[in-house]
Amino acid sequence: MMMLENKKNEKKGRQWIYPKLIKGKLYLYRNIFGWALLALLFAGPFIRMNDEQLILFNILERKFVFFGIIFWPQDFYLFVLAMLIFLVFIVLFTSVFGRIWCGWACPQTIFMELVFRKIEYWIEGDSNKQKKLDASRVSLEKVFKKGLKHLIFLAISFLIANTFLAYVISTEELLRIISEPLNQHLTGFIAIVLFTLAFYGVFAYLREIVCTVICPYGRLQGVLLDNQSMIVGYDYQRGEPRGKIKKEEINLHGDCVDCNLCVDVCPTGIDIRKGTQLECINCTACIDACDMVMEKTHRPLRLIGFKSEEEINTGKQFKFGKKLYAYTAVLVVMITVLSVLLIKRTDVETTLLRAAGTLYQLREDGTVSNLYNAEFINKTNHTIKLDIRPADPLVKIQYIQKVALLEKGGSTKLTFFISRPQKGIVKYKSEIKLNVLSGAVILEKLETTFIAPPTL
Ligand code: SF4
Ligand code: SF4
Q: Based on the domain organization, do 186 and 45 belong to the same domain?
């Protein structure tokens, strides 16, 4: 493993990055926020709501749970709409706040900077010591430190893989894979191993390449950002011409003392003084670093700060422009539509059709009947005692077979006659109203057509 890291530095294509650790105010806030998100991420699969996992993306069974509400394949349109809202939100959020998600909330950055990088500092020392260790010959100390580090990396990757799978296949299924004999869950076990190796590869080797090359969101920044977007930016008006402080000279330089600390702390290895770059994940480490230098040299803080390009160029503060108003309007409309659809979403989804190829039946008791096929899908996480009742007391239902209980997440098909007195029917085709009930609660209101010869 250590050979691999050494070799990487020798390769032309990639310069291994050893960022310095600077503990400023933003570092502290980022830590608090990041640890809170990590706690939520790991607790998520164990939090239950309405007897369901808080969040579940079971792609295999096509079952999705958000805050205790189950969404089945029949709710796919809601899922698509929610994804579109998420996309517009990302566009709006990025236009305003740049890539702050990447630096502060993305699991990749949080795990890398708050977990894996810290373990590296703890075992191998600061960035200089890490460089030295990588460049040194194989020794007992090197083998021990590298071995221990990678072993811990593997253990954490295993934990992340299990958590990830708990969100995909559910906590119960994951516990079964872990606790029951291996041969009963070979596929699940292989999935755990593969995901563990994938996460290990990402955090031990790929690192910033995920943000700068692989992640599609990162690649989109060029399109989403404009000169009014808030980004981590260097105030070149203040900073240039940069130069070291020399006591004996009159200072003709700007505020940047060219200490290079902002570059040394950058986890993607860029120099923010060269302007906005796609590689900048807005982690704000360079803000802390530069603030520290400004404090020491008794200059105003935020030579590097969270500001828009326009603010740096003209001094004008950020304001909400036409483009952002348009994005916000679209977002509000979409959220409203989704909210209405969610409110109108019923616990039972019913498809009711008059049996194909059948006509009406005239009965001896003076009634006329039609034959219907219905399918009911229970979208809740509990069994429903199903009942169908016509809204009009003169209309009757006669089941051919009746299923009273509808299992959670299950579906059932029913065939039944609907009859009504022929007397009083004035049109060949009329409407019949039905209520789908569970006990006294109306779950869904239905309307269907009924055909019968009109009475004169
Ligand atoms: S330039 Fe600054 S904000 Fe951007 S990634 Fe580097 S350290 Fe983080
Ligand atoms: S940390 Fe600040 S002062 Fe030092 S090089 Fe970067 S911008 Fe200049």
A: yes
Distance between CA atoms of 416 and 390, rounded to whole angstroms?
12
What distance in angstroms lies between residue 261's CA and the mean position of ligand 2's atoms?
6
Claim to verify: residue 359 and residue 213 sit in the same structural domain: no
Which of 174, 190, 223 delimits the end of a domain? 223
Any domain includes 432: yes
Structure-model confidence comparison of residues 145 and 87, the more confident one: 145
Nearest to 127 by CA among 238, 264, 293, 246: 264
Tell me the pLDDT tens digit for each residue of 67-101.
888 888 878 888 889 989 988 888 888 888 888 88
Average per-residue pLDDT for the chain: 89
**Which run of H or E residues covers position 421?**
strand 411-421
Closest C-alpha to ligand 1, atom 2: 286
Protein residue with its CA nearest to atom 7 in ligand 2: 256
Alpha carbon distance 170, 191 (integer Å) = 14
Q: How many residues does the chain have?
A: 456
Instruction: Indicate whether 208 belongs to any domain.
Output: yes
Question: Which pLDDT score is estimated for 249?
Answer: 62
Q: Is residue 325 part of a domain?
A: no
Record the pTM: 0.81
Index of the ligand 2 atom closest to the CA of residue 234 = 7
What residues flank ligand 2, with Cβ below 6 Å?
Answer: 234, 239, 242, 256-262, 273, 289-290, 293, 303-304
CATH number at residue 382: 2.60.40.10
Tell me which residue has its CA closest to atom 6 in ligand 1.
Answer: 266
Q: Output the CA 258–ligand 2 centroid distance in Å.
A: 5
121-124: list long-range contacts, CB under 8 Å, 24+ apart.
Answer: 121/21, 123/148, 123/149, 123/152, 124/149
Number of domains in the chain: 2
Distance CA 145, CA 128 (A): 15
* CA 271–ligand 1 middle distance (angstroms): 8
